[in-house]
Amino acid sequence: MKALERALDLNSDYAEAQAELGRIKIEVGLAHDTITHIEKAIALSPTDSAALAGWCLWAGQAAVHIGDYGAAVNWLERARQANRADTNPVPWLAVAYAGLGREDKARAEMAEYRKKTPSFTVAAWNEDHPRHNPVVAEQRERIEAILRRLDDPAGNRRAASTP
Known about the structure:
The protein has about 160 residues and is mainly α. The protein has a single domain, classed as Tetratricopeptide repeat domain (Serine Threonine Protein Phosphatase 5, Tetratricopeptide repeat, Alpha Horseshoe), CATH 1.25.40. Helices cover about 70% and strands about 0% of the residues. The chain has nine helices and no strands. Helix 1 (about 1-10) runs antiparallel to helix 2. The N and C termini lie far apart (about 35 Å). The relative contact order is 0.11. Mean pLDDT is about 90; it is low at about 155-163.
């Protein structure tokens, strides 16, 4: 994080550093700061369509982490529009829709994701999303609980198996 902050001290117009700093803040429990960095990155590089999908995904993930599910849906739908082939926003969208009480929409998103990504397991998601920080651990436990509920078509809680 310090290296990115230093890079921005040297060049505040470095869009990639702005976005990456935002992403890293999710991992250290500062997800509430992420969206500001992503918005700055987009403002600095508004025509970088290759980066837009990833940056919007990170903003959506941050919004899910802090429980701002309305903002999460907006960012994640924007990420999906920026790169239709990328399925990474979909489980996050499912969590966001569930957080808004739109359980049917959340389950539909998750079912579509499972068709495109049959190897998905919550256990694998956990491996990809570590919990080194107590704030992040609490956020990811909440997200995991929603994923487990949505990943089970019958709505029953069950242990996920590894692929």
